[in-house]
Amino acid sequence: MQIIQAIVNLGAAVMMPIIFFVVGVVFRLSIGKSFKAGMLVGIGFTGVSMVINLLLTNLGPASKAMVARMGLHLTVVDTGWPTASTIGWGTPIMPIIVIGFLVINAVMLVLNLTKTVDIDIFNYWIFLLLAAVVYAASHSFWVAALTTWIIFALTLIVADLTAPWIERQYKSLNLKGISFPHLTCLAWVPFGIATNWVIERIPGLKKIDMQPEKIQKRFGVFGEPLTLGFILGIAIALMAGYDISKTLTLAINVAAAMVLLPKMIDILVEGLTMVRDHVEKQLKKWFPKRSFYIGMDTALLIGEPSVLATGLILIPIAIILAFILPGNKMLPFVDLASLMFLLALVTPFVKRNMFRMVIAGTLILICILYVGTSIAPEYTQSAISSKIPMGKGITSMSNIVGSATTWIGWVCVKIGSLF
Question: For 58-74, what is each residue's pLDDT tens digit?
Fold first, then answer.
């Protein structure tokens, strides 16, 4: 377990190349090609991380400025997914839970209950966070462990079911043989399905088509991702009360992210494809009647223009919702800059239509704010148990982009509180 923790501490950019190199060698890809594939994955992850950090570094202050201008004084503070991941990996029950994940995935593969080989160990924090909060609610290791293991197994199955949809809608990313077993993102797929179903039955609304390609075709250069990013950056800066210098800087940085993210992801996918194709070939020899998916990080998907652009649009919407929703006590804060992750797996089910994505995203945010308010005591207790220091003036915390504040997380916490 110390070995796993040590690898996780290296971060995805170092951990994933090691995993892909080992997987390549195990499946008889030459050492040279395995090394190249691992390095390309690592370089791609590094590039993606650099661009995301560029985006978060610039959007973070703008989001805080918008919150300040709105005069929001809510008692449950969104401390962000970095804190949430620390809670997950820092929970006292982490070692046994992680061993359970590895065993469950292996057993389900052997029994043909899943096609997904979840190698994205870094993002086990998503499930570990849920375990930590359920443990805080139930004070029972077995309730927390069994709940989380069941959710993990169901997530693998749902990842199998959603993979074909994701591959079809994200054609440019070449996602054949890839699935995304991420509870935080998969939990919101029903919201996308429901939104799409309702809009398809409303005569006027169903004709609104805001796919990135349609926008670009209609508006030319003004519909390209770089222009869209520039315009959205200006809009966010104006709402934050920025001066001209800061406004232009934010606009350029957002536009840069819109252009650079897909290019960085292309590098990552190139390395991934080298290993995936060889693994697929070997598995067909060993298991001719079966197919498999490699479970990966949803960071692969946020370079999609519709995902990134809609995530930016949701920032001011989240702040307004926090202000107007009756009974809400949650203050959107650190995770405001990461809202695009909530849409990564919703997008295929609304046909990459940004109009429908905004509606689904708004419904998702309403649910998150109420769930975050409801489970704040358990979430805060889990942070204390993981030795997370409470920031100055913070007495209660939660987060937006995390498993505990999904509707699934709320159900698990409330069931856990019964014990």
Answer: 877 887 787 777 777 77
